[in-house]
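User: Fold this; C-alpha cells only.

Assistant: Input:
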Amino acid sequence: MKPSIDLFGARQNNLKNLDVSFKTGELTVITGVSGSGKSSLAFDTLYAEGQRRYVETFSPYARQFLDRMDKPQVDRIEGILPAIAIDQTNPVRNSRSTVGTMTEVNDHLKLLFARGATLHCRGCGQPVHRDNPQTISTALHKSCQGLNDPRVVVTFEVQVPANFSTDEVSQFLEGQGYTRIHGHPRASKVKDQQTIDVVQDRFRWSSVEPERLAEALDQALSMGQGLVTVHALDGDGNDAARWRFSNKLHCANCDLLYQPALPSTFSFNSPLGACETCRGFGRVIGIDIGLVIPDESKSLAGGAIKPWQTPSYKECQHDLEKFAKRANVSLDTAWRDLPPEHQQWVLEGDPLWKGGRSAWQTQWYGVNRFFEWLETKAYKMHVRVLLSKYRSYTPCPACHGSRLKPDALLWKIGGHHIHELMSWPITDLQSWFKTVTFDDAVMDTAMELVMQELNARLAFVCDVGLGYLTLDRQSRTLSGGEVQRINLTTALGTSLVNTLFVLDEPSIGLHPRDMNRVVDVMHRLRSAGNTLVVVEHDPQVMVAADRIIDIGPGPGERGGQIVFDGTPEQLGQAPTLTGQYMRADKQVEAPRAMPVAANTPRLLLEGVTANNLKNIDLSLPLGRLVCLTGVSGSGKSTLVQNVLYPAMLKIMGKPTEAPGAHKHLLGAEQLADVVMVDQSPIGKTARSNPASYVGAFDAIRKLFAQAPLARERSYTAGTFSFNSGDGRCPTCGGTGFEHVEMQFLSDVYLRCPDCDGKRFRPEIREVRVEHLGNSASIDEVLDMTVSEALAFFQGLRDVQVALAPLADVGLEYVKLGQPVPTLSGGEAQRLKLAGHLAEAARSGISGKLARKGSLFLFDEPTTGLHFDDVARLMRAFRKLLGAGHSLLIIEHNLDVIRAADWIIDLGPEAGADGGHIVAAGTPDDVTAVKDSHTGRALADYDKQLQDTRSGLGRPLQAVVREPLQLAKQIEILHAREHNLQNISVEIPHGKFTVITGVSGSGKSTLAFDILFNEGQRRYLESLNAYARAIVQPAGKPDVDAIYGIAPTVAIEQRTSRGGRKSTVATMTEIHHFLRLLYMKLGTQHCPDCGVSVEPQSAEQIAARIVREHAGTHIGIMATLVSARKGYYTDLAKWASGKGYTHLRVDGTFTPTNQWPRLDRYKEHTIELPVADFVVDKAKEADLRQAIETALHHGQGTLSVVWPLERIKTDINAKLSQQHFSTKRACPGCGMSFPEPDPRLFSYNSKHGWCERCFGTGVKLAGFDQEQSGEETAWNSAYDGETPTCDACHGTRLNPIARAVIWRERSIAELAALPIDEAHTFFTGLVTRGREADIARDILQEVRSRLDFLREVGLSYLTLDRAAPTLSGGEAQRIRLAAQLGSNLQGVCYVLDEPTIGLHPRDNQILLNALTKLEGNGNTLVVVEHDDDTIRRAQHIIDIGPGAGVRGGQVVGHGDLQAIMDNPASVTGQYLRAPLKHPVQARRAVDETVARIKVTGAKLHNLRAVDAEIPIGRLTVVTGVSGSGKSTFAREVMLENLATAVGVGEPDQWFGCQSLTGWQDIDRVLEVDQTPIGKTPRSCPATYIGFWDDIRKQFADTQEARMRGWKTNRFSFNTGDGRCPVCEGQGMRTVEMSFLPDVKVPCDACHGERFNADTLSARLRGKHVGQVLSMEVDEAVEFFAAHPKVAHPLKLMQDVGLGYLTLGQPSPTLSGGEAQRIKLVTELAKAKVTEGVMKTGRASRLPHTLYVLDEPTVGLSMADVEKLIHVLHRLTDAGNTVVVIEHNLDVIAEADWVVDLGPEGGAQGGRLVAQGSPDVLIKNHLKQSHTAQALKPVLQPPVLQP
C-alpha cells in the first residue's frame, strides 16, 4: 500500500494551490485561525475525494441517493483511501434510531438475549425450559418420591378428526401396535374435535429400568408431536397426579406454548419483535392531559379543564360542576391538590358508567370519553384543529414504551429483561455486565465473543465520556458533540481498516477532564491501521498528534497557505500565531473583571428538577459575564435550553415549549429580552452577506440614493438593492454568477457574463459616492473589506455604527458583499454576535442609561475558534456588557472560564451522579473548591502557563507512541451463514486471494454474503439513514466476528447483458456524461435548415403570428409546467386567484375551481390560457399585450392553439399547436426549440428518443413507448431479423437531439466512434474559458472510463453498440471497466467468477488488469474455478469437501503448492493431476459422417462464414470474446434449424446464404441458463417432473388411504393439503413501515409448506415436508427402489447437483444450476442405458440436436468432469450436441471444433479453423488463439527428472 495520500494543486475555496502529503497510518491535526482554510483542505478536498470515489463503485441508481461529495478543485490526488467523516451533524431524525442502535450495542444485546436469556412464563412467572427424556426422568424422580411408589402411565395425545369416530381412530392405532387408551375422550381445543390419551407404556415406578423409561418417553414425545403426559395412579386406578412435559418451549403448569427466541425477537426495528400497536416507536399519538390541564394551580370551577372554557363546549363545564357536587368532588380546590381518586373521577368518569345513547345525561362521562366522542366527529375540519391542540406523543399502552412485543420481555438475564437494561445509564450497564455469568452449556466461544464485543462497545462509549447516556435515548435528542463522539465509537466498533477518518473538532462539548478519553480513542483507531485527519484547536488534542499542519497566516483571502508542517514539539518553537499561543508568548487575556457584590441584581431560578438536575437553585448575577460549566452530561444544556430559556420566554408572553420542571423564576422583570445565540446557520443564499446582516447596507444604499446622478435619474435606495428592484443585473438576479447545474457532477459557478460578477446593471454602476476625496460605485463598495469600508466611510455615523462590530469580533478582513454560506463556522458565529452588537449600538444603550438590558445565552461560542479568535471574542463580550446586557455562556474553554466574572460549576459527575451545583463564584473561588473538576483544570492550566513562561515546557498530554501494528489480514471468525460450518478464515491484505471449491460448497456465501456485505455495510453505516434505506445494506451475517475488514466493492457476474436501449456507452455511464456535455455546451441547429438557433424577440413572435394565422381564431397559452411530475394543486389555486377559470392539462381544459387529483407519478404539461381572439392587423396591440403576458407567465415561452371554433362543441377537441420562445428559435423557418435538457439525449425519455423506434434503433414489432426494453420478452431469445430503424438510422434519437452540435459533431456521431477513436478525440481536446470550466469534470470522467475500456481489451467496440449484441465476456469486462475506474487504494474488491464467458486469451488480459488493481494497494478476493486464475493467486482458500450441508468447511488454504499438496482438496487434486484427454476415444469425423453445412453466415459481425457441424457428434463452437460464437450457433444455426425442422425449408434462410444436411434432425432444443421458475413454489422436483411420482407414493400410504386422500392432497400449489397461511410457499412476507419487507419462515408450517394434517402421513418414516427438504444425494438412496424417481435423481447427481434439495425454490438457483436442471429434464425424457435410447417409437430413434451455451458456468473442475460424461452420454445415445464454450477441458473432449476469430468485434467474425482438436493444434497453431491455449492441455510438457 502507498505510504501516503498525495494532493497536488489544491485550490478549493481559499486554498493557494497547495501540494501536501498525508502519511497513511498517522494522526494528523490541521489547525489555524477561523476561515484560514482548514475545513476546505480536510473536508472539501480530502474527505470529498475519498468518499466520492468509493460511492462511485455503487450503481448509478444508488448513487443518486448517497450524497456523493462534489469533486474538489485539485489537480490530482494519489493514493486516496475510502473516507468517512466524523462530524457534528446528526444524520438520523428517525424515532427508531437510539444510542443503542447507533453504537450497535443493541445488535449484540439481541444476540446475547437470543442465546443466553431464560424464558419466564407469562402465567406463573416460572422459568420455562425444553424437556428431553433425561430432564423428564429427573423431574419424575422428585415428583414420585412423595407418592408411595405409584403405578405410572406414559401417554401421548391424539386428536380425533371431526369426520371420524373414536373407534375408527382406535382401530387405526391398533394397527400400529397401540391397544390402550387412558381415561375417556375429552373435548379438544379445536372445535368439534376430541382428544384421547394413548398409552405408550405402564409400569411400577420402583421397578422401571432407566432404559425402558427413556425409550417410552422418547417414543411418546415423537408420537405426541413433542408433548407427553405422565399419570401417577392411586390404588383405584385414578389419577393421583398428572404431569405434562414438552420438548418445545412449553409451560407445563399453564399449558402455554412459546416460540424460541431469535435476535429479531428483541429488535424494535424488526416485524418479529416490534410492538404491534406502536410498530416499535414506543409512543402513540394521543390526548396529552398536560395540555388539557395546563395550569394545575387552577380549580375545576376556575377553568382547570382548558377546552371546556370555550363557548362551544361550555356545556361540558356545566355538566362537570353538576355531577361533581353529587360525587362530593371539590370545585374550588387547585387541581394539583385534589386527591388522586377525585382526579381519576374527573378524567375517567363515573366508575359505574353503563354506556348507551343518553347515558351522558345521567352519569358523569369524564374528560377521556369527551375526547373519544370528539374523535367520532374528526371528519369536521374545526374538530380536527381542536384535537390537534391537545394531542401529543404518549407512551404506548400496549408495550408501555418498551417498543417490543410482550413475549420479548419474558426473556431475562439475571432477572432483568432487555428494556430494563436499555433504560440504565451506560456506566451502570457496564458495571452490571462484569457481574453476569452463564452456565457452561450456554457459555460457548460464540457467547464469549458476544460478551467481549458488548463490553468493548460499552467501554468505547464510556471512553469518550458518554457513560451518562442510556441505550434507549433517541439519537435526534443528542447534541452535536455527543453525536460526533458516538460516531467515533461507531468507527471504533466497525473495526474497519485502511480507511481515512476525517474528524471535525472532536473536543467540542468536552470538559478538559474528559479530553484524554477522546485522544485515546483516536490513537486506537490509528493503531488499527487507519489514517486520521483532525481539524482541531484544542492544545490537548494537538499535542497528541503525530503531525500538525498549521494553515494561515490569516483568515479568508489572507489564508489558504501552509505556514507550519511538523511535529507538536516543533510547533512549540515555530514563529506562527499558533506556536506563539502554544508556548504562551501570547494568551487570551482576561479583561478587567466586573465584581459581583451582595447588592448586584440577580435572576433567581429555584427548585429545578428537570432530567438529572437535583432540585438546584440558580442565582445569576445580571450585567456580568457568567460562565456555566461542568463535565459533559452534568446538566448544563438542560438548565439553560430546557428550563431557563423557555421559562423566560413564557414570562415575556412569547410562544415556547413547556419549560422543564422548576418551582419559580424571579427577577425576570429586570430584563428587556432574552436572546439565544446558538450555532444554527444564518443564511443559505449567496445574496445574504455581512453588510446586510449587521444593517450597514441600508445606510450605504441611502447614501447612494442621495448622490447627484441618482437624484437626477430618480433612483431610490431600492434601486441599489441586489435582492429586488430593477437595479440589479437581470441575467444573474443580483448574485453575480451563473449557476450551471451539473446534475450528477458538482455544480459549476461561473462569473455572470453580463455584469462580470458586479451584481448591478451598468447604468447603476455609473452612480458614485464621493467622500473625503475618495469615490466608489456600489459594486466597489461591496468589494471592500470591513476595514477598507470603515476608512472610506469615516465620519458617517450610521455606516460606522453598523460596521464597527464586525471589526470588534475580528471580521475586519471579510468583504462587505461576501456570501454568508462561504463563511466558516467560527466566522458565522462571530457574525451573529456582531449583529447583536450592532443592534445594541443602534438602540443607544449605555451603562449610564436606566434602560433595561437583555440576557444573552451562548452555547459554546468558542466552537471552531482558534486561540486568537477567542481573544477577539472576549473583547466583543465586554462590549455587550458595556451596553448594559447580561451574558450567560455554556463553555468548557479554560481561557473563557478564566476570564468570566462569575462561574457556576455543575457536577460533580455526569448523568445520575451530576445535577448539583458544585461551585459558584469568581474563578479564584472555584479554583479553591477541591471537588470541582473545573477548579482542578483551572489550577493545572495556571500552573502550565507559569511553567511555560519559565521555560519548563508544557506537558499537556503524555503521548505514548506505540509502534503501529497494522492489520495484515482480514479475519473471519466462526462463520455459520447458509451452509458454512462455523469456519474461521484469514484473507491477507493487499494480495490476490482466490476462493475455490466444488459448486454449492459455500464460496459465494463466504465472499459475498459475509465479506462483501459486511465491508459495505460498515461503510454505509457512516452515511445518512435515508441513503441506507434506499441502498439497503445487507443484514449482519451469521458470524461471530470480522476483524481487519476494509471497505469492500463487489463486481458480480450478472447473466443479463442489458436491455434493448442499453449500449456500451450507457453501461459505462459515458453516455450520461456526453448528455450533460451536449446539454451545456452543444449548439442547437435546425434539423430542416441546418442553421444555428437564435432567440426570438416578442416583436418577431407577434409578426410571425400575424403572418401565419391572419383571420384565424387562436388562443395564446403560457407554458407553466413542462413534462414534470406532481399534483399542482397550488398552481390551480394561484390561477384561480388571478381570475383564470381554466388551465390546460396534457391537452385537456380543466376548471381551476374543481381541480382533479393528478397522477403524481406521470409527467404533466400545464398551460395557462392567456387570451383568445381572431388575428387581425388592426388589433395588433391586443396581440402584443397578450404575448407580453404569456411570456411573463411562461418565463419566455408561449404557444398558439387553433382553431378555437372546435372547442365550442367539444372542449377537449384536438387543436393544432405551435411553440414560440424568446430564447430559442430558427431564424430561417422560425421553428422554436425547447430549452436544453439531458433528457433530450436519452434513449429512455420521450424527450429524446426517436418517435418511431422509441430509442431501440431497430424495428421491433409490438415495441411501444410503454416498454423499457429490459423486459425478458425482448432479450431472452432472438426473435428474428431486426432491421435498422428508417427514421433515426440506428442512432436512437429524434431529429432535434441529433441537430445539437458540439465540436462539429452530433452526440450520435460521437457515440458511433469505436472506443479507440473516441479516446483519441477526447485526449486531443483543448478547451478554454467558460467551456473549460464546464467541461473539466465531464472530460475527466469520460477519459478515465475510455482508458479502462482499452485496458480490458475492448477498444474495438463502438460506444453505441447495443447491449444485447455483446458476448457474455464483453459484458463482464464492461462492468469491470465501469467499476475499476475509481482508482482507490486500500479497498477490498470481491469478484464473482470474472472469467465467465472469457476465452483463455482474454482471461490473461483480465488477470493483468486485476493484477494492476492489486498493485494499487488493494485486496482482491475472487470466487473462481478457472485454473489459470487459481495459479495466478497468491493465496487460495478451498471450501468443501462436498456441496450443500456436506460443504461449508475449509478444506485447505495457502499458496498454490499448499493446495496441490493437500490430499483432502479436490481442487488440489485436479491442479496436481489435470484431466487426461480424451476421456474416451474420439468419435471419428470422416467423409461418411453426415454434416449440417452453414454457408455465407453474415449476421452481426460474421464475415461470410462457411462451417460444418457433424451429425451425431460432440461439437464445440469457440473463439475469443466477441468473435461471433453465439451469433453463429444460436442466432444463425439454431434459429434456422428450428424453423426448418418445425415447418420445413424456408424460402429465405436468416443470416446466411444456405443451410444443408438438416433433414436428419427430428428435434432442435436449446438448453440455456434462463430461470426455470419465478416463484418459490417452483422447484427442481416439479420442473423435472418426478414430484408426481412421489405424490403417488404418499397417496399410497396407509394413513392417506384411511383418510381417502388422493395425490392432489400432497400438492403445495393447490388443494387442501398445503399450508393455508403461506399457500404452500413455506415463507411469508412481513411488511414493515419505514423498513424493507422481510421474508420469514411461515409461523404455521415452519417452512414445511403443508398443514399439520397432511404432515401426519409418513412414507418410510418421513413426512412430505421432510422429503422436500432432502438433498438429491440423500434422496437417491431413499428412492433407490423406485426407478421413476431414482433415475432423474441419479442424473442430477451426475451433473453435479447432488447438493440441491428437492424443494429448493427456483429463484435461488444460479444460471448454471438452472441450465443443468434443464439438461437433466432432457436426459430423463429418454432413458439412456449403455448408449441405447429406448422410446415408445418402433420406427427409429428421434434425433435431437442440443445447443448448450457455456454449460460450465459456475462449475468446479470436478463438476466439469461430470458434465463431460453427461455430454458424451447424450452424444452416444445418437444425438448431435453443439456446445458454445471456452473451457479447455470441454474443448479437448470435442469430436469437432469450430473456431471463430481471430479477434473480437469488427476484427472477428471469420472462421479461423474447424476440425478435431488434434487437427487444430497440428495445422492452425499460428492463427488460432484456441489452438495455442489447447496445446498444453492435450500435449502437456514432459517434466525432465
